[in-house]
Amino acid sequence: MAAVLRPYLYTGGVHKHGLLIELLEDLGGYIIQKVVTGTEVNLIMLIPEKDVPVVKKQSDELLGMMVEAPLTGVEIAVISPTLASHHLPHSACDVAEYLRHPGANTNMIGLARGMGRRVSLSTDYERKLINEHDIAVFTFGSFSDCIVNKKPKLFEGIEIPIVVTGGPDLKTEDVPGADLYVGDIGRTSHRLRKIEEVSALDKLNEEVGKIADNIRKQQAKDPLAVLPARAMKEIENQVPEIQTVLSPAPLTLQLNGLRVKLPYDEFHERLEKLEFDEGVTLSELANILKSKMKNYILIKIKSKSEVGFAI
Amino acid sequence: MMNPLEIFAVESAIASEQEFYRKIIEDNLASLKLAPAIGRIKVMLRPEDSLFQMAILLRDVGTRVTTADIADVEAKPVAGEIIISIKKEQYIPELLGKLWERYGKANISQPDRWTVAISTDKAEEEAAFLKDMMVADPRHRLHENLVDFAIRVTPEGFRVRYHLYKGNRFIFVASEEVLKREWVEEAEAMLEELMKGGRT
């Protein structure tokens, strides 16, 4: 059985950060994402649990900072009723940006006709796109009557955990269909930076982290046939074209798979034939699908019980 | 003469929601720079009826601005040009727009920040015309901003709208449903109340 991996975020100077990457490779950890901004580098990584102190020591030597990033490897859809200025950039973008701090990859989705009370609705395409993610965060407004009585119809057909943000102070059980409700993040026309707003965002991160942990726990009962991070590394090694993709996070990890930002028609066969050291191919371990997002490839990894073995 | 925002009332059945909307209105007033133009404002929120009502009394926002108000115009018939020396910079974009339209960009130069030179063979006549030319109408700009403001603060789904802008009075009613006559009448009553100046 593979070692337990812990997600961490490293922030430090570009100088000599290669040492950290080499160390991680030696230990059998994974680099999920590397972002270089000027002279700074952000590394999101998975470290084998028992080796965390070793990596910490190296990070201290480089005068970098290492913090736990519980939402690493989680892809979250942040859904706003529409893309109108009523909802964007505040507060929907603030929510998406804040969820990235603990390591999540967020996609903003603006529904075409999600606004209003009686008239709000979502299309089949939108629901399928949302269901490709691990967690859905709906950013709603300031009226409790809308959130409790009218908006929950947007949840129909959503099969992933649903998180709702809004202005009023409601309980999760008041919002039918929601797995979590976080208040104090309603419709605003200013950046969220007051004490109560930032604490609400902190609470959101914390509670979404718990939901992700819960999914991981459920998954541990019937583990995936291969770790998404390992599949990611093999793709990096065997499909060099991924290095030329300019989209942010060309390989986006999910809790039960990954999104590959390469055109489906051209690359899906190569991904299906992707071979692991154990001699099995990716198509035996996972379903390789055409994503609803652009022309990307979506890989959903099967569970051990379905495949019969895990590597 | 009213003070800016001497009455600023937001009413709703639930106190906390009232505060959210007050903040949204404040933010949008600030970003559209409308606060100095508004004397009294009252907003009524009825989400359960999908209804948003707003009444505004505007302050006196000044009259039309002519070239003579913002600059000195000097004709130089011998040189075949008109020199405009700017005194108030804020209206330069509007002024230039009008000048370009009349004389063409090629005939206008800006030797420095405060000077606009126009070459023309009818310097005297044109200078006389320019002095009285209307450069900007703050009321027109205010109307645009006011409508923009109303749409921004209204809940997005409320797309059936009624608005009235007469003199210094502005009424806005928005809903998701077909507007009822009494909703508009209620907004008119809100305006009456504001005109009396009684605390709402």
Describe the structure.
- The complex is a heterodimer of chains A (311) and B (200).
- With 311 residues, chain A is an alpha/beta fold.
- Chain A has three domains: 5-69, Transposase IS200-like (Alpha-Beta Plaits, 2-Layer Sandwich), CATH 3.30.70; 75-218, Rossmann fold (3-Layer(aba) Sandwich); 228-307.
- Chain A has helices at residues 17-27, 52-61, 92-100, 124-131, 144-150, 195-221, 228-238, 264-272, 282-285, 304-307; strands at residues 5-13, 30-37, 40-48, 65-68, 75-80, 105-110, 135-139, 162-165, 180-182, 251-254, 257-260, 286-290, 297-301.
- In chain A, the strands form three sheets. A five-stranded parallel beta sheet of chain A has the order 6-5-7-8-9, with helices on both faces. In chain A, strands 2-3-1-4 form a four-stranded antiparallel beta sheet. In chain A, strands 10-11-13-12 form a four-stranded antiparallel beta sheet.
- In chain A, a hairpin with a 2-residue loop joins β10 and β11.
- The longest helix of chain A has 27 residues, at 195-221.
- Chain A is globular and about 55 Å long.
- With 200 residues, chain B is α+β, with helices and mostly antiparallel strands.
- Chain B has two domains: 7-62 and 138-196, no CATH class; 65-136, Alpha-Beta Plaits (2-Layer Sandwich), CATH 3.30.70.
- Chain B has helices at residues 15-31, 67-70, 92-103, 123-132, 138-153, 181-196, and strands at residues 7-11, 38-46, 51-58, 65-66, 71-76, 81-86, 108-112, 115-119, 134-136, 160-166, 169-175.
- In chain B, the strands form three sheets. Chain B has a five-stranded mixed beta sheet, sandwiched between helices. Chain B has a four-stranded antiparallel beta sheet with strand order 5-6-8-7.
- Chain B is elongated, with a radius of gyration of 23 Å.
- The model of chain B has no long low-confidence stretch (mean pLDDT 90).
- Chains A and B meet through α5 of A and α1 of B.
